[in-house]
Amino acid sequence: MVNKTLDNTTEVIEVKYNKDRDEIIQPDLFDKDRPGESYVSLVKKQFKKNKLAVISVYVVFFFIFIALFADFLSYAKPLYVKYEGTTYFPVIKDYLVGIGLTRWDPPELININWKELDNQNKVESIVWAPVPYGPAEVDLMHSLSKPRGDHYLGTDQVGRDLLSGLIHGSRISLSVGFVAAGISAFIGVILGSLAGYYGGKMDIIISRFIEIMLTFPLFFLIIVIVAIYGSSIWYVMLAIGLTSWTREARLIRGEILKVRNMEYVLAASSVGLPNRKIIFRHVLPNSIAPVLVSIAFAISAAIIIEAALSFFGMGVSATTVTWGSLINEGRTAPNAWWLAIFPGLMIFISVVAYNLIGEGLRDALDPRLRD
Q1: Which CATH number fits the domain that encloses residue 176?
Q2: Tens digit of each residue's pLDDT (9 = 90 or more) over 65-106
Q3: Contact between residue 269 and residue 17 where contact means Cβ atoms under 8 Å apart
Q4: Of 239, 240, 257, 365, which is least packed with CB atoms within 10 Å of its CB?
Q5: CA pseudo-torsion sign 215, 218, 223, 226
Q6: Helix (H) or strand (E) holding 5
């Protein structure tokens, strides 16, 4: 039984136990205050009031769309071509060849120069991507070209199209942001949950471990990890995730300390539910909200770290184009202003968007700011 006190009155609410699902049915103590509205709907309603946060969500979806369809937006080969009476879809064909489902037939089509054939009018019909250049396509005849013609945002020192690099570089930034933040959140939630729920020696050991991690300069620790194991996108994501989980751990520990002695947790413990089920079914779902806010900020932090690593030449491999590596190109060519302005603008917009989403979530999850 649970005592609910409102307006100096006490109401007894029954805590029910579902034997079939082996779980406590938590009483919704505030249904009468908000009839017909769930907690999720209240959060969504509050979040939508923050116009900047809503716009930021659309900006993030736009970046995700660019990352998913980068090869259809910018590619060195055409989307569609009819050559010698046969129709080809080179972009899709490259995907299928890459995963081993098919092969180019005849084999000489693998390295055929479609642009040269198009200029010589040897193709019957052809459709190019909006940006008809690949991110690694070198054109020394147009090195450091200003934004004009087919090179909408200019080129770098070896003639690579800047817009193509920005489009394909979004894959690296989003991948690093989401994967690194996911690793960080997973480690932080697990360790923070154990420390907050069990307390005692478990809490002391994990808390001291968190304090030790906080004493390390994380950026230089990431540099050391990347320098030892090599420049790979996977190592970069793993290094960022393994060194930036302390914030999530401290947040979830604090929230679990608040809820572990609440009535529904005590009821679940009294009926003999194992600690694993109590933590993951009852305690963690009611403590995870601040971590969602932290994840949004962690994604933006990971994007900045990856850009900084690429800027110093310690991120992904040299052949991979990223926003940070494009800014690094601009450092060696001070007159090519477009190499610094456009990649920096992309990093700025993505980081600000994630930060605004994090602030919007923080305000929406705070009951004190709810109308």
Answers
A1: 1.10.3720.10
A2: 999 999 999 998 899 998 888 888 989 888 888 888 888 877
A3: no
A4: 257
A5: positive
A6: strand 2-6
Q: Is the residue at 116 inside a domain?
A: yes
Q: Are residues 85 and 63 in the same domain?
A: no
Residue 367 backbone dihedrals phi, psi, to 5 degrees: -65, -20
Both 254 and 110 in one domain: the answer is no
Tokens (6 digits) for 193 = 């949950």
CB 234 within 8 A of CB 306: no
Q: How many CA atoms are closer than 13 Å to the CA of 74, on its beta-carbon side?
A: 26
Instruction: Note the pLDDT of residue 149.
Output: 81
For the stretch 157-209, pLDDT in tens is 888 899 999 999 898 888 888 999 999 999 999 999 889 888 889 999 999 99
Question: Domain range holding 180?
Answer: 46-69+164-369
- The answer to whether position 8 is within a domain reads no
| Residues contacting 95, CB < 8 A, separation 6+ | 71
> 282 CB contacts (<8 Å, ≥6 apart)?
23, 24, 26, 264, 265, 268
Q: Within this chain, do residues 213 and 350 fall inside the same structural domain, yes or no?
A: yes
Same domain, 54 and 103: no
**Domain identity same for 199 and 93:** no
Kindly compute the dihedral angle of the four CA atoms of residues 99, 103, 104, 105, in this order, to the nearest 10 degrees: -170
pLDDT above 60: residue 60 = yes
52 to 43, 353, 358: CA distances (angstroms): 16, 9, 11
Task: Give the number of domains in the chain.
Answer: 2
Contact 144, 134 (CB under 8 A): no
Residues 215 and 101 in one domain: no
Distance CA 127, CA 89 (A): 10
Please state whether 159 falls in left (phi above 0), alpha (psi between -120 and 50) or beta: left
**Considering the entire predicted model, what is its pTM?**
0.78
The one-character DSSP state at 1 is -
What is the rounded distance in angstroms from the CA atom of residue 98 to the CA atom of residue 319? 18
Percent of the chain with pLDDT over 70: 88
Phi, psi dihedrals of residue 12, rounded to the nearest 5°: -90, 125
Encoded tokens for 340: 């610094």
Q: What is the pLDDT of residues 222-272, one digit of tens each?
A: 888 877 877 778 888 888 888 889 999 998 888 888 888 788 778 877 877
